[in-house]
Each structure stands twice: as C-alpha cells, then as structure tokens.
Amino acid sequence: MTDTTPSEQSRPAKDRSWLMRTYAGHSTAEASNQLYRNNLAKGQTGLSVAFDLPTQTGYDPDSALARGEVGKVGVPIMHMGEMRKLFDQIPLTEMNTSMTINATAMWLLAMYQVAAEEQNPEMDPAEVAAKLAGTTQNDIIKEYLSRGTYVFPPEHSLRLISDMIAYTVHQIPKWNPINICSYHLQEAGATPVQEIAYSLSTAISVLDAVKASGQVSEEDFGKVVGRISFFVNAGVRFVEEMCKMRAFVELWDEITRERYGVEDPKMRRFRYGVQVNSLGLTEAQPENNVQRIVLEMLAVTLSKNARARAVQLPAWNEALGLPRPWDQQWSLRLQQVLAYESDLLEYGDLFDGSPVVEAKVAELVAGAKEEIDRVQAMGGAIAAVDTGYMKSELVSSHARRRAAIESGDEIIVGVNKFTTTEPSPLTADLDAAIMVADPRAEEAAKASLESWKAERDEKAVAEALAALAAAAKTDANLMEATLVAARAGATTGEWAGTLREVFGEFRAPTGVSGAVGAAEAGAELSAVRDRVKATGEELGVKLRMLVGKPGLDGHSNGAEQVAVRARDAGFEVIYQGIRLTPEQIVAAAVAEDVHVVGLSILSGSHMSLVPSVVDGLREAGLGDVPVIVGGIVPESDAKTLIESGVAAVYTPKDFSLTEIMADIVEVIRKANDLS
C-alpha cells in the first residue's frame, strides 16, 4: 500500500524553479537588512537590492544634489560601514544577489566583495570572490535612453563596464557583470521590436568593447558571452510578450554564434531575469494590478525554452507609493503558487510546433533584425545615443501609446473603461495603504558619513583616490584601484567625484525635439490648441511652459510626454532634461519668461523639492507664475502642496494629457486675471 494515488505516482519530476526575488531597499541599511532577512524567511530565494538615487548617481548624502532624495527609492550606501550593515547576518558566499546599479556599479561590486571578505576572514580573498554569485545591472546605455542614472560620457562608461566584465570573468566567475536591460526601454515606450533591437544592439556594443580592450583572450571570450545576462520587461499582452522572449532566445543564439564564433551552446544561452511591467500598474482600481501582474508573470514562465532565470514582481500598490512588507509578501506568494502548486514545471515547452507562436516569433525576429541593422549602420548603440535617434524613437512610441489610451483605442480597465466601481477596502485608508520612507533617513545618513570620515585613515583614502585618478588616465583595469579605495574607506561620492574629474560628465539628448506627437489633433486637442492661441493673443505673446525635473530622479518618461503634448497643444516648451537643482529651474523660468512651471517627480522627494522651487520663484519676483506638479504623490501630500501655493497636482490616475493641457491653460488665465 502507498499513500499516493495513481495520478500522483505518474507525475513527472519538476524542473528547478526560477530564482524568486522582490526588489527592495529603503530608508537605511539597517531597515533594509531587516526587510531582506524577513523576505528570505518567507521563501524568497535571492536578493534584489534597490539603491537610493544619490548612491546610483555617485553622490554622498551631504551633497546639495542629494537633498530630499536620500533613502527614498532605495537604500543609501555611501561607505563600507553601510554595506556591512546592509548584509549583516546574510552569508554572501551562499547568496545570489542582484544589484540594480549602473554608473557606480564597479564601486558597489567592490564594496560587496570586500564585505564578503570580511564575513569570511579565514578564507583567502580569491576563494571568497570565486564563491560570489549575483548580478550588477551595469547597463549604462539604457540609462541614457530611459532611466537617467548615468554619470560619465558614453565612452568612459563603456570602459568601466569592460573593466568590470574582464575582472569578473577572471576573478568572480559566477558573477553576471552586466544585465543588458530592456526593462526600462519598454517603460520608456519601446515596442517589442524596439525592446529586442535596442537591448541586443547594446549587448553588441558591450561585447565589441570588451574584445577591443584586449583584456580577455580569444579562448576565454566564450566565458564573457556566457556571463552576459539580460533584464527584461513583460507587459500584459502576454502572448506577444512570451513570443518576444522566444525571439530574444533565437536572435541571441544567432548573434553569439555568427558574430562572436561561440561554439558552446551553453555559453550562447539567453539568460535573463525579469521584473514585470510597473508602467501598466494603475492608481485607479489598483486591485486590478494583481491580475495584471499574474498575466505578466505567465509571459516569462510558460515557455520552458524561454523561461526566466529569476523573477521579481512589483506590488499591487506601486502606483500609489512605496509597498509595505505585506504587499511584497503577496507578490512573492504569486510566484510560489505558480512554481509549487501548479504543474507548470513538470512539462516541456508548451508552444513548440505552434504555428501561431512560430509566426509571431518570426515577425518579431524580422522586425528586430531590421532595426538592429539600422542602429549598426549608424555606428552602433553608442552612436545612436549620441545622435538622439533611439531616444526620439522611444519618445515617439510612447506618445503613440498615450494617444491610443486617451482615444480609447487601447483599453485600460478601470482607467478609460469600466470605471464604475465599488469602494475598495484595500484603499479605504490611502495613507495606510503604502509605506512611507523614514523621514529621518537623510539626517541618519549624513551622521553616518560624518562619523565614518572621522574614524578612517585620511592619508590612506587620499592615496587610494589619487591612485584611482592616475589609473583612470591610463588603460589599466580600474577594478583593482576601486577595491583599494573601498578597503581604505573612501565614500561613494569620493569614488565618483574622482572619476568625474578625469572623465567629465554628460547630459544625454532628451528626445523631445525629434519626437512625433499626436498624429491627429482631434476635436479635444484642437479646442485646447485654440484656447492656447487665444490666451497667448490676449497676453500679447506665445504661451511658454517650462517642464522641470528637479532632484536626481531620472525617470523622465512622464516629463517627456507632457512636453510633447504641450508642444502639440501650441505651447512653446522649455525642457532641459533631468537632474536639475531647484535653483537651476528657477533660473530657467526667469531667463525664459515662462507662464507656467511644471515639475515632474517620481522619487518621493516632492515635499522637499517642490517648496524650494515655489519659494525660489517668489524670491525671484515670479511669485505669480503658477507651479503644477506631476508624479506619484499621496493625496495628503497633494493637499499640503496646494495649500503651500502649488496650482495643481496630477498623479497616474490623470491619464489624459490633453485634459491636463486644458487645465494648464485655465491655470495661466487665472494667474493673469483673464476672464
């Protein structure tokens, strides 16, 4: 007798599940460490670290540019002391850690390696390094196109990436030194064809740069290809998204075999992790986000031959603010039910031989090849960044999608259709439905920085940074000098500042001037355009709108779409890109003599930065120029901002850009006492 039924006895063995992660980090290293250990105890099988914007862009918390941003969208890690706290009681030689870090990836990997060495003093450092497993995102090219946490010019960024890849292949062989990241391309408007083409073009540029550096032998180059990983987005059109992943697999195999001569099929395997689409999560009826997340997860797990190696899911309330631990647990449980309760992992690929799938994959492959050829003809991904081609294409694609949503051609349930709803118990108390980053995080980080500097060996730090600067002026691999700086006690801002002095900084093209906006004006936009023109005639000048991105938030998609639609509505638009101080925005408003200032902030720093702009305008004699704000702003914060002088606040639920333009005209008329 057995305790199993015949059907249970005949079940095939299950494949190993993908790595399960939640993207997390906030306020302080101590708070984030507690969150990580709690999530691991709940069955999470890997870590995915979110760093705050100052850490991502190479500033210490006492920098003027870090004001209001410390601990908001991730954890601040400004020196080795904080890195130790972040991974306290988490054995790094046994963990698989993903770090979403790009411009400062080399620095964070160095501190991670040193932290692991300190956890294992009985082991040789080389032995420790050989045990480390994980990923640094490290894809700068997509930062120029979509997310905005770049620091250095493209050629120097590519040098840092090449140095890291060469170092890890030899010293940390289990590490993925780069995550070619199409995730943010989709968030910036990329179609599936563009997402495939631009990310594979990035991979080609990176591999060509590593080969040209001469740091890896021909015999070892297959290992480089084998450690390249990808980080992909999955939208709610899950059939198309699943086919996109199969197209990725097919094209990557072809490129690595034909362009780079990699013979080992294991080294040609398309290895990717995924976070499903956050752009599609809605503030309106946010409970609908759960089924969206499930469908998007299926897109990257159903097809065994194109299954993700690691999955992290957003939480249902990310369009409202920072998810709570319970919300992250819910998303983890979605993965666990699919992996452990369903029979998905017991079968081979479900779609082999499907004519529908084969036709869609062939269509995506053909379109992506055509676009890759176009980018290569321009000189590759770096050249297509410099010319603004890829950025303009993404802004145009995003504008077309926004127009389709506004017209109703693309239905978003609960947003532009089926909007009648029962009150949701999930959002009955909006302030309790999200977590708020610790408002004391910035002061705590500054205190930690001050204490750290007081206790370190300043001479050793100065010598290490001088050696780093000297090495940066040669073709030496910078990873060794970076490790020396980490061990000496240098800070994130000091490491990045040293390289800024050698490499300089960079401002990427915004893509707005070359973007194509609304194809047809339509009655609603035509009416707004007439109102803009009439108001300008009454004031005797064309209406001018300044769109500003204060602080370190580089998520510029919303600001770009506002700028494009304002231009379509007849405004003269001034948009200078990302990472501006409040003082720079005020100076631009004065110089351009604008009629309205629009501020876009998605990092949660609105309560610090918006009042600074409002006060600055008042001090500059422009107190009558209205300020409007857009971003992820909780209702209570929006009320406070309006009470302090802001004319209007828009959040993700306000999806109609044309209606927003109509509102802005009326705000201008009211400010200028026009009837």
UniProtKB/TrEMBL annotation:
InterPro entries for the chain: Acid_CoA_mut_C (IPR006159), Cbl-dep_enz_cat (IPR016176), Cobalamin-bd (IPR006158), Cobalamin-bd_sf (IPR036724), MeMalonylCoA_mutase_a/b_cat (IPR006099), MMCoA_mutase_a_cat (IPR006098)
Keyword list, A-Z: Cobalamin, Cobalt, Isomerase, Metal-binding
GO molecular function: cobalamin binding; metal ion binding; methylmalonyl-CoA mutase activity
B12-binding domain ranges (all copies): 542-671
Pfam families cross-referenced by the UniProt entry: B12-binding, MM_CoA_mutase
Domain of life of the organism encoding this protein: Bacteria
Keyword Repeat: no
Cofactor names: adenosylcob(III)alamin
Subunit structure: Heterodimer of an alpha and a beta chain.
PANTHER family the UniProt entry points to: COENZYME B12-DEPENDENT MUTASE (PTHR48101:SF3), METHYLMALONYL-COA MUTASE, MITOCHONDRIAL-RELATED (PTHR48101)
Similarity-based family: Belongs to the methylmalonyl-CoA mutase family.
NCBIfam families hit by this protein: acid_CoA_mut_C (TIGR00640), acid_CoA_mut_N (TIGR00641)
Name listed for the protein in its UniProt record: (2R)-ethylmalonyl-CoA mutase
